[in-house]
Predict the 3D structure of the following.
Amino acid sequence: MTRLGYGFGRGARGPANPRPEALWRLATVRAGESAYGIGNVSTSNSARTSGRIRDTLSNAHMTALRYADAAFIIGSDQAETAVSPQSIQRALEIGPAVGRVTWSGSAIGTIPGGALLWSDDLLPGALGLSEFPPGAMVWHRSMKDNLVGDTRANFPMTGPGTPEGEDQRGTTIGVDRLMQTGALPADGGARAQIDGAPGVLIGLASDHGPTVLVGGDSRFYGVSGNAGPGTGTAGGPPRMALEQAGIPHAMQARSGSKIQDFVAGDFAKPVLRIGIIAYVSDILCNWSVNDMSNGRTASQILADIAAFVAKAKAINPQVRIWWTTMAPSTSGSNIPVGLYANSANDGRQAFNNEVRTNFAAYGLSGLVDISAAVEDPTQTDRWADFANDSSDGLHSRQTGQVKEAAVIKAWADALPAPLAAY
């Protein structure tokens, strides 16, 4: 309880302002580059990933950092736990100083298949510092070993060079890289895929600004873009916008993903199971298009969004959740089909109209209207500048991504200060 300082005579003063509580929140803006390698991957031999990733700390005055790493390697039966443990080593570099990351005092951590592992706290003194410098450029060193089975391994802390680890080293149609389902390549490790979603870095500070978790599909990680640094395959519209805004964020966008899967799986799938929701002030999602392409109507998708919000708030009661409108989905000649046409009942237009006017009914804090930036103003189920804004009718490219990023940037710049401890 705050002690009031009203009194008489000597020592009288006004109301005391308690020092803000120090909270753990996402710690890096992820504006950088990545370089890593993978070796000796097969179904019978141990595989190793190693990398050195550049990043930028947030502007908060952080007094401790903590890594989270996870292991999700798919065995032949598709079970996340049907794998051997992984071993991991990490280090953090700031300038010439290097701080070794430990797990319960050990320089090597062991992650059971499908599990999450938090590191010990990394303190500034380990790098000869009194605090971690706000906005400092850092390098993450990481190595994982003992990757066995039909290997699809998560490489952590990837930078924009590979959008949060969406690095396909050969896959087959039907493999859902987010939900970890579908048939794996018959040649196993020779066509292994590395995904990097679980790696995160959180920091302890009392002056965090907004922190954002981005959830979505291939449209959000920029599968078709080529607009330069910070865009396209460097992360898509959300990453470009949030990097420009200087807001710490984590991208959890994967091709083919659907809101329905998260809700049906009770958040039991890898990406959201790692608990990032507890360390952000805001969540921005675009899930909708793959749900609709799999036969879900606008009403069903909106019901899934409401369920998503309820589950997220059970983890973090004060998190703010925002959704985007659904951009056009057309053929290669810019002709909408099925539920994506304006004339379709309970399709894309119905979804956009409802989320624009009634978002609060689904527990959302608001919407980010990216569709308005790229849709034709008179035929809103078509791209306004198809040749430049889209590559295939399904994904934005180059100028389209820049337009969408501008809308997200305006949203990011207007984010209110984080809520109190949550």
